[in-house]
Write a structure and sequence with these properties.
six-stranded antiparallel beta sheet; eight-stranded mixed beta sheet; Thioredoxin domain-containing protein; elongated; alpha+beta; Glutaredoxin; 10 helices; Acid-sensing ion channels like fold; 464 residues; Erv_N
Length: 464
Amino acid sequence: MGKGRGKGRSSGWFSKLDMFVKLDEELLHESTYFGSIVSVVCLVIMVLLMIMETGEFLNTSFQSKITIDDDAMSQIRINFNITMHDLSCDYATVDLLDVIGTQRQNVTADIEKWQLDENGRRRMYQGRNRKQYEVNHDHEQHPPLHVLHENGVHAVDVKTGTWESFTKDEEFSFVDFYAPWCIWCQRLHPTWEKFAEDMEGAGLPVRVAKVNCVEEPDLCRNQKIMAFPTLRFFHHGDPVTGGDYRSDRTTDALMDFAKRKLEMEDQYKKWPEARQAHKANWNPDHPGCLLVGHLLVNRVPGNFHIEARSVNHNLNAAATNLSHTVNHLSFGPELSPDKQRRLRRLGTSVPHQFSPLDGQGFIHQSLHRSFHHYLKVVKTTFALRRQFTAFQFLTFNQVMRYDESEVPEAKFQFDFSPMGLSVSRQGRYWYDYVTSLLSLVGGTFTVIGIIEGTIYHVLKPKKE
């Protein structure tokens, strides 16, 4: 018996270091139904804990911390795509100001304009935002207005009550919408009267007229007169395509314009299909404009604003509506699709924080009002697989009221935070994961074993 017990064993102190003690095969073991149940429960708990630990290992967490923004970048790019619902591209200008003295009016670089149809869709490319050049006048070459009126008034003064009959009787008409206080209108009066006299002398079928918008505000409002003077060519009361005159205000230039319009209308009469296509392009009710482009701004508080301005007109403040929709507005370089996918992994709302105004409309019906937007810009650095920087911003929008003589503007006021945000990935090493798995398995087996042994000894029937 002693001989068998010592088989395969070493004697001495070293044998006591064996942590894996073996039992003799002769020793009996006892399996119980209760022990089998506990074993199954133990296995289920182990599997569940392993699955949960594996999921936690595969699930990447992110840590955010506030840092001081010490980036030496001198300028930031502002990307924008804004629809002005009731502002003609001819008068839409973009200005840029900041607190260190930068003042750029009618920014033309890297900005495009698109004319919109009545549904707000892009209808015609208006080209890049061009500089506004002054037009020529020849009022000094003509006698004063009272001298020109000695042989009769040739430019008909049309009122609201006579507008319908006037446009019905006259197939073609060329109308000057003016305001008596407008300096450009005052310069145009002698030229316009002489032009009307020359048109009658030439026998051309175009009636030259004028409308005082101060005395007839409803008529000018219905015609959406935004600036003075507005010279518009009509066919039976409907503005023709390209009917707003924008060239030199001289009798020769006005005469050439009227002749070209008559020639075009004469050609359209010969081809009914072309006439219908021509009518389809008439768009008197929606002088909207889409502004697309970007600006480079200094990293200091400032603003860019969109307003109506012309070097050759006085703007009608009461008819200037700055309702707009921000299709897109962001700071910094445009995010690539790959970077956008990485941001979406942080959360469904994270990409929205970098362009929170996208798709929002700011519409107002009251006169002398406009929306101002206040933007707090925060630089955000993402230390993911590849590090990149983006700019998120918070917004606050407010309707501002203007005096009756002031032309409203849609203002975007920005301020860069001196603090930045750093977002980094918090992953786990593989050996941490393996250690956790072994701890869960061993710990579960030990604890369940202690519980099972305790219950077994308590419930085990005692031998008499």
